[in-house]
Amino acid sequence: MSTLTKTVLIMAGGHGERFWPSSRLAMPKQFLALTDDSRTMIQLTVDRIRPFTEIENVYVATSSAYRELLQQQIPDLPAENILCEPVGRNTAPCIALGAVHIRKKYGDALMTVLPSDHLVQYPNIFRDVLQEACDLAESDDSIMTIGITPDEPETGYGYIKFIPRRAKRNAYAVERFVEKPDLETARRYVSSREYLWNSGMFTWKVSVILKNLEKYLPRMTEGLRSIENSIGTPDYERVLRDTFPRFPSISIDYAVMEKAKNIYTLAANFGWDDVGSWLAVSRIRQTDERGNVHAGNVIAIDTRDTIIQAGGKLIAAVGVEDLVVVDTEDALLICNKDRAGEIKRVLQVLKERNMTSYL
Amino acid sequence: MSTLTKTVLIMAGGHGERFWPSSRLAMPKQFLALTDDSRTMIQLTVDRIRPFTEIENVYVATSSAYRELLQQQIPDLPAENILCEPVGRNTAPCIALGAVHIRKKYGDALMTVLPSDHLVQYPNIFRDVLQEACDLAESDDSIMTIGITPDEPETGYGYIKFIPRRAKRNAYAVERFVEKPDLETARRYVSSREYLWNSGMFTWKVSVILKNLEKYLPRMTEGLRSIENSIGTPDYERVLRDTFPRFPSISIDYAVMEKAKNIYTLAANFGWDDVGSWLAVSRIRQTDERGNVHAGNVIAIDTRDTIIQAGGKLIAAVGVEDLVVVDTEDALLICNKDRAGEIKRVLQVLKERNMTSYL
Question: ipTM of this predicted complex?
Fold first, then answer.
């Protein structure tokens, strides 16, 4: 059993471009309901950890643009637990900011980092895994990661190479972190049975991650110290605004995970999905007998394997397949399922043409 | 040169279901602009015949629901030339109604029957052909038809089998009218060089068509006489309402053309298109280098051979091809081009579900 407080940092600063046009700068993916549940992705994320720790121990890192949305969606989240990054600087500075807040309040504590927009279909198993990660992280200076046993050679995820004999309890030692592979490499990873998907979830003691950040990103150390000193003072916003933008934009994987020792992974399978693009909707929502997921006022004639999300108007589909159709108040997307990754090209065009209201 | 007045009857009672959702019961195809021109189909039809005859000699048969639309779109069309059928009864009763109106006003006259929603790309040639049809129809009791030299084995049209040696001036004698063929039959027709497309355009003397109607549809004779007698009296509307609905619902092709003698055809080619479905839009409008016809606010990424008609909102297409996408205020169609003929199945569903506002 843990004696240190179990804290959680939820990273909710993303823009969810791959869910355009539903996801917008003003209302990104994590604040949308994308599953069969009417609760939003971040609401589901918080719901899922409520039995694991008190809401007072939950921090959310996001942009100040989303503070109000967050307060509307998670009304009992303490205002001081909303950490607004002045600019996006990838995951390493985000985690560092969370870590100094937690150290300031708790001294040392257990810290679990979670994405705000992933799906977990077996929340009990998920919490049991997090608890084991906490137990192991507390017992020494380990960095605990959650690896997902792959069921296909997915090229959209990073992978964790582990040493396939138990190191401590259910955890395996991590040999290395690898970036998103091409399809052939992914096939090799999966068939070797020595790689897990990197879920982007981590557990460590705050003292441990801060020590690692000092070691591998020493140029953040002084800034982090200034921020920590200013927490709870009228200077905080100013110090953050002066300091944070100067941090390097770098991921925690690249900054720490690919270099640190003492990393372990729990090989888990709790119905995880990163809900990385519209394609995920076919995986995570109920499909009809023709493989369609239709929401709203839709009439479909001989239509297969489509995702159609109607907005205010009737959508009639005739003889189409493998399409993603998403209607919103001011924009409509029609995308081949195989090309869902290219929605960002639409956003590029919108930026080039200065059509910012659609972003 | 004609000595009889050249009159024209434009048939404008159709519902244009194949152009849903742009075409609606309240605003059918003939009142829409479907070409690169901003004028509507019926405006183009009237424009095209203005050099051929005076607007006072032009009659339009339609439903009373469209009287106002017609007056808005053709403001100089005399009100008494708008013939409102109380119910739709196919083309034979429609033509008969036009014929008795024309006989009442002119005694005998030349009468050309035209669809309201076809496209003609060479209006000069078109008018020259009509003039020749008039000259030939006036010279004896011929029924003149306009046949189009086919450029593909189209299964959506009826065909005219002609005897391939000139009978009088440029006209050929018609051997028979045939209904829409299957593809194999259509191929045989086209390669035989003895069949023309039936354009649904006819020219005759009013006395000739009324004699033929009396002969082949004798049960309409008394009703037609009552209607003719009531024209210009306060009884007209009542007589029409009592009489017209009892006429058989039958096409002029089936009622007269497949039986009458003395039918001739002019083999013409004036860039005719019946604009029979959304597919026609790719033929009659400018396409871009990828075969797309896009109107309105459209961003297309790797998109080919599509017809996309945006309404009030942005439409983004990514990696799609061979689609028809039509956005309107309350309904959106996404249809495979090969299945454009099945749009009526959407209308069936709408009727079944009593969603009448979308019809």
Answer: 0.88
